[in-house]
């Protein structure tokens, strides 16, 4: 664990972004928490870990975050890739020295230190009123749960560290069992749930809606693999998703293009987003996802080719699915940047889901990235109830939840009388593709979408479109980063 704090790295003051003040230097805990402003900056610093998978160790159209889509086998990298990405892209043996693995460890385990610092210090402060204090603590508890939830899904047993580092020996601790990590995640989310957070927060800070949505996701994960807690936890997941739905604070956007509308960020369907700004905290998504080789459809055409759907995955969408229509989730042509009257056709489909119209003209993207969407919660609700009812449900709330997502894609589709778990899981692939949910879904369900045959199948033994071999049990957990084990041999025990 890093001894020095990461804070204050960000300061939240507007609904557009978190990043409108830069720190003058690093401060230790003994120098911090002296004013209400420092406390606010410290709380905002706990959000920094959300950025790390996207911005650490990046190169030309490279980001550790992409590895979570590469490993599913439903995407490929049009731009030539190196061996580290190829290990995920083709499902060859993952090397513990792979920097992508180290980056995910950095993004999940290290940010906990900031959360621990805020929890320890804000709990005893008298510099802010009690309501503000509790809301600050709620954000820190949520984010500690968020980081540990990602860590335990990716790495399995991880060190459970709930206090700040005060001595170098504090970092040499053993891994805790997954059960203990999940128990702590739930405890932290319950505290966040009871901290007085508002249901929605257009500033992009954590809201009660985000807390309850994450609780539903955690519970449905605990119900599945590897914890296999079953029915009780499917019921918990269903109940939490229903709380979000019944709050009536959230709704799907009417059009898929609204998902890319900067004016709608942090509202309605966007329950929780990674905050960006075009100059202070640029997003690499727009430029990285541009077609490759270079095609002049944006002022920044040269850095694309990070990720595109495999043809088999793209073909798994029905032709009349609204998400497959041009410039919904994908695109196959676009006007030339220099000559809009000239349309450039691509040889393959590319991802349009995160297109930034401003960056097309300026070359700098400040578009937020969705971390939890309302569509995700609706499908969690439907899946949990289908599982509760033995794989098929006629529950009106569950069917309505699924149908809300489905109806946007197929406006003339009839509402079904029953719904199966596999129906919901396929919808999650189609709706949430390339938002870094799919690998987590595959891990907890141990199922994969056999896109060639349009059915769900066992994950183990399934060869995904871009892989060289089928999944086996060794693929279900990332190895601990070699550098971390070398620094702390107790991790290997």
Task: Produce the secondary structure layout.
Blueprint (H helix, E strand, L loop, with lengths): L35 H10 L6 H4 L11 H4 L4 E2 L6 H7 L9 H10 L3 H11 L7 H26 L22 H16 L14 H16 L7 H16 L23 E5 L10 H4 L19 E2 L1 H5 L14 E6 L7 E9 L5 H6 L6 E5 H15 L3 E2 L2 H14 L9 E2 H12 L5 H8 L1 E4 L4 E4 L23 H6 L6
Antiparallel strand pairs: 1-3, 2-6, 4-5, 7-8, 9-10
Helix pairs in contact: 1-6, 5-7, 6-7, 7-8, 8-9, 9-10, 9-14, 10-14, 14-15, 14-16
Describe this structure in words.
The protein is mainly alpha-helical and 493 residues long. Among the domains are: 1-197 and 463-493, Serine Threonine Protein Phosphatase 5, Tetratricopeptide repeat, CATH 1.25.40.390; 284-365, no CATH class. It is 39% helix and 8% strand. It is built from 18 helices and ten strands. It has helices at 36-45, 52-55, 67-70, 83-89, 99-108, 112-122, 130-155, 178-193, 208-223, 231-246, 285-288, 311-315, 357-362, 374-388, 396-409, 421-432, 438-445, 482-487; strands spanning 75-76, 270-274, 308-309, 330-335, 343-351, 369-373, 392-393, 419-420, 447-450, 455-458. It has a two-stranded antiparallel sheet with strand order 1-3. Strands 2-6 form a two-stranded antiparallel sheet. Strand 9 (447-450) and strand 10 form a beta hairpin. The chain is globular. It starts with 35 loop residues before the first helix and ends in a 6-residue tail after the last helix. The model is unreliable at 1-17 and 20-27 (pLDDT under 50).
């Amino acid at each position: 664990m890093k001894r020095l704090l990461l804070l204050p790295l960000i300061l939240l003051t507007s609904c557009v972004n978190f990043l409108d003040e830069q720190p003058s230097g690093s401060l230790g805990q003994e120098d911090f928490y002296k004013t209400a402003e420092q406390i606010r900056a410290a709380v905002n610093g706990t959000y920094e870990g959300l950025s790390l998978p996207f911005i650490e160790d990046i190169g030309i159209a490279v980001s550790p975050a992409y590895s979570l889509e590469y490993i599913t086998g439903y995407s490929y990298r049009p731009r030539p890739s190196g061996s580290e990405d190829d290990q995920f892209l083709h499902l060859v043996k993952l090397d513990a020295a792979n920097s992508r693995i180290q980056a995910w460890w950095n993004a999940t385990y290290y940010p906990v230190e900031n959360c621990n610092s805020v929890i320890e210090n804000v709990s005893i402060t008298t510099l802010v009123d009690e309501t503000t204090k509790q809301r600050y603590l709620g954000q820190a508890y949520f984010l500690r749960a968020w980081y540990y939830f990602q860590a335990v899904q990716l790495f399995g047993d991880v060190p459970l560290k709930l206090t700040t580092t005060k001595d170098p020996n504090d970092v040499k601790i053993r891994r805790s069992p997954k059960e203990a990590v999940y128990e702590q995640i739930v405890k932290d989310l319950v505290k966040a749930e009871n901290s007085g957070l508002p249901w929605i927060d257009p500033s992009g800070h954590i809201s009660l809606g985000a807390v309850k949505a994450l609780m539903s996701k955690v519970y449905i994960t605990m119900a599945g693999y590897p914890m296999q807690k079953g029915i009780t936890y499917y019921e918990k997941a269903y109940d939490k998703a229903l709380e979000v739905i019944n709050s009536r604070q959230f709704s799907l956007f009417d059009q898929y293009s609204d998902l890319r509308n900067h004016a709608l960020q942090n509202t309605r369907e966007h329950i929780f987003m990674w905050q960006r700004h075009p100059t202070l905290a640029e997003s690499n998504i727009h430029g990285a996802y541009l077609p490759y080789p270079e095609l002049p459809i944006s002022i920044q055409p040269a850095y694309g080719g990070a990720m595109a759907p495999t043809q088999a995955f793209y073909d798994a969408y029905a032709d009349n699915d609204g998400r497959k229509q041009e410039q919904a989730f994908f695109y196959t042509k676009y006007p030339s940047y220099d000559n809009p009257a000239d349309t450039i056709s691509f040889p393959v489909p590319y991802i349009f889901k995160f297109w930034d119209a401003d960056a097309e003209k300026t070359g700098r993207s400040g578009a937020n990235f969705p971390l939890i969407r309302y569509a995700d919660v609706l499908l969690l609700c439907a899946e949990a109830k289908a599982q509760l009812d033995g794989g098929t449900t006629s529950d009106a709330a569950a069917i309505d939840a699924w149908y809300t997502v489905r109806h946007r894609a197929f406006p003339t589709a009839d509402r079904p009388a029953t719904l199966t778990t596999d129906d919901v899981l396929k919808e999650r692939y189609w709706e949430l593709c390339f938002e870094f949910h799919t690998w987590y879904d595959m891990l907890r369900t141990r199922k994969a979408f056999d896109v060639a045959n349009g059915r769900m199948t066992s994950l183990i033994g399934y060869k995904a479109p871009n892989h060289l071999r089928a999944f086996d049990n060794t693929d279900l957990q990332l190895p601990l980063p070699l550098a971390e084990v070398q620094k702390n041999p107790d991790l290997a025990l």
